[in-house]
Design a protein that fits this description.
This protein has about 575 residues and is α+β, with helices and mostly antiparallel strands. About 30% of the residues lie in helices and about 30% in strands. The strands form eight sheets. Strands 3, 7, 8, 9, 10, 11, 12, 21, 22 and 25 form a ten-stranded mixed beta sheet that branches. It is globular, with a radius of gyration of 29 Å.
Length: about 575
Amino acid sequence: MRYSQTFIPTVKEVPAEAEIISHQLMIRAGLIRKLASGTYIYLPAGQRILLKVIGIVREEMNRAGAQECTVPVVQPMELWQKTGRDADYGETLGKFRDRHGRMNVLSPTAEEGFTYLVSQEVQSYKQLPLNLYQINTKYRDEFRPRFGVLRSREFIMKDAYSFHANEACLHKTYMDMYNAYKRVFSRCGLEYVIVEAETGEMGGTGSHQFTIPCENGEDVIVYTEDGTRAWNIEKAPVDPLPKQLAVEVPPPALVHTPGVGSIEAVCEFLKIQPQQLIKTLIYKADEEVFAVLVRGDHEVNAEKVNQFFIGRHIELADEQTIQKVTGAAVGFAGPVGLSERVSRMLVDYAVAAMAVGITGANQTDYHLKNVVPGRDFPLEGDNVQVCDVRNAVPGDTCGGKKLLFKHGIEVGQVFKLGTKYSVKLEANFLDEEGIRKPCLMGCYGIGINRIIAAAIELFHDEWGIIWPMSIAPWQVIVTPAAPDADVMEAAETVYRQLLEKGVEVLLDDRDLRAGVKFKDADLLGIPIRVTVGKTSLAEGKTEVKLRSETNKQQVPVSQTAGHVAEMVQQMLEQLNRI
């Protein structure tokens, strides 16, 4: 391909709206352009990368025994109401009413569509197992799209769904897909970690997440100091903290805190630290109202709370409910006397370990000091449970091992869904004894766009992107460094020879200074650059340079194409050797 005939609009300046390096470089290298908030056009170079990633994913899915389908992006709301995920996704779920008055969903994932298909087509255990996948556009109405393609409203995803007659069969396919994912990310050149994960809106009994460690990742990876276990932040367990030494504490006393409801405001007003506060949050599980208690410097882990209400929609209670339950305005809820007003009270380990704390008084504009857990509010009872309901923080341990933290980008996740969707959408089969049972399901997702962004976050320098050979837009760029006829003829010869050898090559035939061409080549991140210059050509040689290195090789012109083609092959084999 000739650069002069290719649409690659590179940009020198860093775009103002681009917050992280992958977003900046995807725009600067002419891979994408923004159409609207959270939606992007892939330009020719970006499209080539996208198709490379899709090709690797497709090969590995087929190799693992999955069969490709395509499910409509527009799906009837009725299916999502049957599974309850219309409520789970809330405002994030894109929806519209068509001209016939029917409500539709712009699907963010396709459990409903694939499960409906199986409910219509599968009747017997003899038709199982079945593993179907698609590579398709998805939509989530993100409140705040950011970080370019990492958190966009429209994105491309590979999602697979497997259906089984028993647990052993489900586990086999789960591990087949788990191993296929390892091959996908290795072939894409990514350095990844596998962590235990929560299932979130997907539901189910188990999950692993494939995460790319990098500074700009939105996910938090938690791992033990010895590296034996790792989780995402939603799943990471923490040990109970040691009980603080008991002291003689006077009875609880009211403290007037007018208009002071937030943790920060209370700390400033009372001149205390957040860890001295007990934070009381009121939630609803469908119509059931319950309370969660965490220390003032800790955050409630919604996924851990969800485990106490499997299959139910959990959300923070509205202002009216909070006032009805506590008798106070928002910001003044507290645990004293609260267990009698809520269906359940979940008390975090760290709260139970406190000797004394300050809490809301269940009275507007008042807090209580001298509150002793276990004395002034219960730590046991029919509706009180001490448990792990918070995010892990530095200093925590699990199994006595210190927990460490780093950021990462989630690029894939595998789930054991169980029968959550098959029961609700009636995807049943007759077993060997003629008994009707719901299919056991697995779900397996890969973010295609996220792989591209993650690769850039991992592999770049001050000059631009450094692509792994397997997903680079072109494998080689041939750069004539002077507008000399002999230079151009030699560059054309090397270019044609590389094409004949099956190498994906871009010839920079533009009438520009060599420095401009070199900068664009570095920005694009093409793995190998062949430079034909007057000085080297006078010696019958070209310069061959890896984008990832500073050293250059002098190679005879007649041998350049064969040498470079061999380099390409070796680099691809290195990525495929897993």
